[in-house]
Specification:
The chain is an alpha/beta fold and 324 residues long. Helix content is 44%, strand content 17%. It has a 6-stranded parallel sheet with strand order 8-7-9-10-6-11. Strands 1-3-2 form a 3-stranded antiparallel sheet, with helices on one face.
Length: 324
């Protein structure tokens, strides 16, 4: 390899190298694939051969791995890939600080940000009254918001959680649908229930819903209310009209916090109807306590192919706009 340099590092002796490299070196292979280098491991010593700047980045990756292990986190493909991406993009001086942040823990399972964008989103929720999480599917915008809502309830920062979505497919005219109210709204709110079951025991959820400390309802049921001491999550907000968005935001009472999530590329409103989520970015950008977080394909934490699909659609949309 011409124009190469060697960069060396040593992993502290108390670390098991299998934890760092993978049982079949699968984590090591992810690093080798991401950088134009050769990596030689002997005992706890790592030698990186290749362009010097690439070698230093690889050493930074392994340093971040050690920090994650020191913080009690295991390494897997997801956080290894996230660490590599942050080092390659020079996004954050300490990927381990990003990936070890904890939104919520339930039955030994921690819900954590997996990208810098997700970490910034969590920080925005902690620091602001109204946060808009805008981004494509798979970026964790709703899941992380709900985790923060459950945490706030557990800490008694709020007295209740309200989870809501516009039932756009029914045009919000739920009275015309067959069945009880629960049967009518279940298809629209099921994704919120699914996430909730990852964060609380079923018995707890049932008890909270019986007491009214957790409420899951269509957006139409927010009208005419003032909501105090609550954590409110409005999901699929791209399917609100400007009037519905204004109605929702003006329900906010004392001691409340709200997170509004949506994907402005997936509007299901009837043709000619303007999305309230698209419009609100132009109206509220300069208000203190309101924060807009833009998540992108880089924050997609589903299967790798989902990120590629999101990026391909985004490129297609950009090309179409240029043609028109």
């Amino acid at each position: 390899m011409s124009g190469t340099a060697q960069v060396k590092t040593s992993v502290p002796g108390h670390h098991n190298m299998v934890s760092l490299l993978g049982t079949r070196d699968e984590l090591l292979k992810l690093v080798e694939k991401a950088f134009d280098v050769d990596i030689l491991v002997r005992g706890n010593d790592i030698t990186v051969t290749g362009p010097e700047d690439e070698g230093r980045k690889v050493v930074a990756v392994f340093d971040a791995f050690v920090q994650l292990l020191d913080k009690g986190q295991g390494l897997d493909e997801a956080n290894v890939s996230a660490t590599i991406a942050m080092i390659q993009g020079a996004e954050h001086p300490s990927p381990a600080d990003v990936l070890s942040d904890e939104a919520l823990s339930h039955r030994g399972k921690a819900i954590r940000p997996k990208t810098l964008g997700q970490k910034q989103y969590l920080d925005a929720i902690r620091e602001n009254t109204v946060v808009f999480g805008i981004g494509p599917a798979g970026t964790g915008k709703t899941y992380l918001a709900m985790a923060m809502a459950v945490l706030a309830l557990k800490r008694k920062d709020v007295n209740r959680i309200i989870l809501t979505r516009p039932a756009v497919e029914a045009g919000e005219r739920l009275g015309f649908l067959p069945g009880t109210l629960a049967e009518k709204i279940d298809p629209y709110l099921r994704p919120l229930f699914d996430a909730l079951h990852d964060m609380m025991d079923a018995e707890q959820i049932a008890l909270h819903m019986e007491r009214g400390t957790i409420e899951v309802a269509p957006l139409a049921y927010m009208r005419g209310r003032t909501i105090n001491d609550s954590f409110i999550v409005l999901d699929e907000a791209q399917n609100t009209t400007p009037e519905q968005m204004k109605m929702f935001l003006t329900r906010l009472g004392f001691g409340s916090k709200c997170v509004v999530t949506g994907d402005i590329t997936q509007v299901d409103l009837p043709s000619g109807k303007l999305s309230g989520l698209r419009l609100v970015r132009d109206i509220l950008t300069d208000i203190e306590g309101v924060r807009f977080c833009e998540l992108t394909a880089r924050d997609v934490v589903r299967h790798r192919i989902v990120q590629d699909i999101v990026e391909a659609y985004s490129a297609w949309d950009d090309a179409r706009e240029e043609r028109h």
